[in-house]
Amino acid sequence: MRNPSIGRLMLAVVFSTPSAVEAQEPNAAGCSMCHDQPKTIMGTAHAAVGCQTCHPKHQVYPHPAGIPKPACASCHEEVAARYRLGIHGELSAAGNAAAPDCTVCHGNVHEVKLAGTEAFRQAVPKLCGTCHAGPFDQYEESVHGRAAARGIVAAPVCSSCHRAHMIQSPEAKTSSVFSTRIPETCGRCHGDVRLAAEFNFPRDSLVSYQNSFHGLALREGRETVANCASCHGYHLILRSSNPRSTINPANLPKTCGKCHPGAGANFAIGPIHFVPGQGEPVPVYWVRAAYLTLIPIIIGAMLLYCTGDWLRKIVSLRLRPSGQRTIPARRGALRMYRFERIEHAILIVTFIVLAWTGFALKYPGRFWAEPLMAWESRFPGLRGAIHRGAAAAFIALGMAHLISLARNRNLREHWKQLWPRRGDFGEAAAGFAYNLGLRRTMPRRSPHSWVEKAEYWALVWGAVVMSITGVMLWANTLVLRWLPGVTLFVLTAIHFYEAVLATLAILVWHFYTVIFDPDVYPMDPSWITGYTVRSGEPEDERQ
Predict the structure, then answer these.
(1) I need a labelling partner for 111 at 20 to 30 A (CA). Which of 3, 178, 437, 502 fits?
(2) pTM as predicted
(3) Distance, CA of 263 to CA of 485 (rounded, Å)
C-alpha cells in the first residue's frame, strides 16, 4: 500500500511554493519522509547543517539530476588549504586515486564524527594504520601506543606529531617532524611541567637538550645533528629498560655510532639529560662550581683594584695645581714593536668575532645576536663557520707568536720582561693596599708591572684552554671513540665559562688600563704607535 505521508509530500512539492515546502520541513523533517540521511546525521558534526545547504533545489520534485554537491572546502576553506599543502593533498592533486580525502578520515558526509571527541582521537592510530601498517604496528608497541590503549587522554597519537590536515614529508622544512623541529614537537608534551608531574616523566628533558652539545648545534641550524628521534626512535619508542630500546645502555654505542662512527663502549657512561645544578654528572658539577667560584672572585678583585685606582687618581688630579700637565710632553716608552702591534690587531678582531659568534649560540634571542642569527634561516651553519674560522685564525696567531719569539731576538728579549718575578707579588699587594686606602704612599710600579704580566699570562692560559676544548668539540667524533659521552658536556662547560671569564676580564681589566685609567685617558696609543703616554717610564728607541 502506498505510504500516505509520501503522497502528501508529493502534493506539497507540486502545489506549494519553495518557501512553503521549507516551512514544512524544519530540521529536515520533510526530507526524512523519503530519506534516511536526515536521521543518521543527528548527533554528528553536521547535525546543525540543513539539507538545503548542500542540496540546492532539493524542494523540486522529482529532484533534478546532475546538480553538483558543494565540496568540503566550501565551508572548511582553511582546513582544505592546509590539506592541499600536505602530502595527501599533493598526491590527490597529482591524480593518485588512493590518496586519502576528507571522507576517508572523517567518514560519509552524513556520518561525520565530531573530531574533538576522545573517541575520535583514540581511533586516529588505527585509522592511519589502514594505510601505514608498519608505523602503526610500531606505535602500538611503543610507550605512547600502550598509554593510548589504556585510555590515557594525554597520550600522543599520529596527529599529535604529524598534525591533523597538513601532514608533510619529514624532508619538508615546514614539517612538524623535520629534523630541526622535532625538539619543538616533542617538547609540547615533554616540556609541559603539568604533564611531567602527572605522569612522572623527567620534566627537564627539553631544557637539558637545548643546553646540550646537540641542542646548541641544532640551534645554529645544523640539520644533521642528533635530535630526540635520532636517539629515541620515531614510532617504536621504548623505555630504556627494554633490551630492544635504542637508548638501552647496551645499545647506546650502536645508536650514537650512527652519527659518531666508532663510538667506544665508554660512550654511554654518564647521564644524557640534565640541567645545571640538577643531577648533572660529577665532572660537569665540579667544572661549573669551580668557575662560578673563581669568576666572581677574580672579576670582583679586578673591579675593586680598578675602582680604587680610579678614585685615587681622580682625587690627585683635582688637587693638582691648575695648568699642570697630566701627560708627559715627551714621547713615552716603546711598549710594542711593529710585529707585536700587528699581532694585537689580529687578536682584537678574532677575539671580538669569537665572543660574538660564541655567545650568540648560547643566547640567540638577544638583540646583539639577532643580526647574526637572522642569517641562519638562509645559510644554516653560517654562525658556526664564522666561529670556527675565527678560531683557526686565533690558533694560527698563537703559533705565529711562538715562532716569532724563537726567530727574533729583539722580540724574545722584549717578551722576557713579562716573565713573573718574586717581586711582582709584593708590588701587587702594595698596589691593592694603596688603592684600598690601607697605604698612604704610592708604591713603585715597574714599566712592565705585575698588571701587564698578569694580563699576558691570563691570555696565554685562556688561549690554550679555549683552543684545546674548542678543537676537541670540533673533532667530537674522534674524541668520542675513546672517551665517554659526558666528555662533551665537560668540554662545553669549560669552553663556555672560560669565555665568560675572558670577556669579563677584557671589559673590566684591559679596558680600564688602556682606556679609562686617568693616566692614559682617552686611550693609551701604544697599540697603534707603539709608544705609551704613561709618565715615569724610560724611553726605549730599539726597533
Answers:
(1) 3
(2) 0.71
(3) 9
